[in-house]
Design brief:
By secondary structure, the chain is mainly beta. The protein is built from one helix and seven strands.
């Protein structure tokens, strides 16, 4: 797992691969459940965490229609992960 820093952030976005992230699903995710009945929402809990400035942050997904954005927040700042 890679440790990202402020130098990796460009236009509030970090470029990461699946190998750069930590797979750590919550209990209900391990049981195959989803957060909403439709699978869509503004802040869906992701099964991955990212190491940013030496701290693990849970990733979240905003998904409407067939488009999703993955992000996390640091001190109120939203950083997107591509």
């Amino acid at each position: 797992m890679k440790i990202f820093t402020e130098q990796d952030v460009r236009n509030n976005t970090i470029i990461a691969t699946q190998a750069d992230l930590l797979y750590e699903p919550l209990g209900w995710q391990k049981m195959g459940l989803q957060q909403t009945a439709s699978g869509y929402g503004g802040k869906l809990t992701n099964v991955y965490k990212i190491n940013f400035n030496g701290r693990l942050y849970r990733l979240y997904t905003t998904c409407y229609s067939n488009v999703g954005s993955v992000w996390f927040t640091v001190k109120g700042r939203k950083i997107y992960v591509n």
